[in-house]
Amino acid sequence: MAERCPTSELHADGASSAAREDHHQDDVQRYRESIASLRMWLDSMPHLICRDDDDFLLRFLRVAKMDLERAQMMLDNYVTIRKSSRGSPHWFDYPALDDERVLRYLEQPFVHLHLGYKASGEAVYLIGTQDLMPFDQLVTTLYMTADVALVDPHSQTSGVTVIVDMNQISKKQLKLFENRKTLFSLLRNWQDAFPVRVKSVIYLNEPLYFDVIYAFIKSAPLLKQKLKDRLHRVGKDLDKLRRLIGEEEAEALLPEELGGRNGSIQQLMEESKLKFHSDDVQGGMAADARDGRAGGSATAFHRELFENLHGALSLPL
Fold first, then answer.
1. Cβ(55)–Cβ(307) below 8 Å
2. What residues does the CRAL-TRIO domain cover (predicted)?
3. Burial class (CB within 10 angstroms; exposed 0-12, middle 13-18, buried 19+) of 139
């Protein structure tokens, strides 16, 4: 998607077209200078091996609201959690797109669905939890789909709301989150390490034994209060879910199973799979994470998808 500079936020109604054009050109120049500055800083950090193209760097600048120091910190964290022993590289060891694990993941009953956008541009996602997957594989696939979502500029500009339906999660799986080290890693990875603006996370159909984990999350010192305030629990109360999203928009965005008119979850799953397979891959795709080289070729959708899933690679396809 082509980048649009947020000029609508800078002008009062009635501004002349010439004034708008001048401001637009100023914004374009500011973006270019910020991207160049971030790239120059990245070049000075040889331990940070990642893409340095405009689209990739702009994600961090958008979320940082063009604050260069904050964008640098987020990009540093982004690479560190994926590549360093101080991070969680085993969760970011993504399989190839045609790997059996990915294909099996796509067949799971709604693990990750994009429901659409609010009028503000905020993207709304529904995430399901599955007892069929080993814990580490579940975390990896969730990170994969999160990285795919970063392709959408709305995730950095307008933000995202994530509905987490815990209806299928087992006590055995949830107990793994009680491990303080594991939970710390998950919280650290999400905060200031993903170029995404989280507007709200809504837990749905959560079991009773989620209480302990939720209490720990809300009291975790490392988690910023602003993010804690954006965590919500609704249980089975669909009316509360609709109020959090907005009554009219919930009607249009939620699937039928959650009281909306956005089709059934099964229909949304099929649409999601069609999008994933919308373009034929032209040749094989491979990556060598050790030296940052990537090979193969793909059509536009898979090219962008592949670049995101292997965002720590240094060279473009």
1. no
2. 98-266
3. buried
Three-class SS state of 27: helix
Through-space distance between the first and last CA atoms of the chain, rounded to whole angstroms: 18
At the second CATH level, the architecture of 19-83 is Orthogonal Bundle (1.10)
Residues 6+ apart with CB under 8 A from 113: 125, 126, 127, 128, 255, 265, 268, 269, 272
pTM: 0.77
Buried b (16+ CB within 10 A) or exposed e, 185-219: bbebbbbbbbbbbbbbbbbbbbeeebeebeebbee
Domain range list for the chain: 19-83, 100-276, 279-309
Angle between helix axes 17-43 and 68-83 (nearest 10 degrees) is 40
Question: Is the confidence at residue 302, as pLDDT, over 90?
Answer: no
- For residue 289, give the nearest of 273, 312, 317, 266 by alpha carbon: 312
C-alpha 262/C-alpha 115 separation (Å) is 8
Give me the CATH topology for the region 100-276. Answer: Phosphatidylinositol Transfer Protein Sec14p (3.40.525)
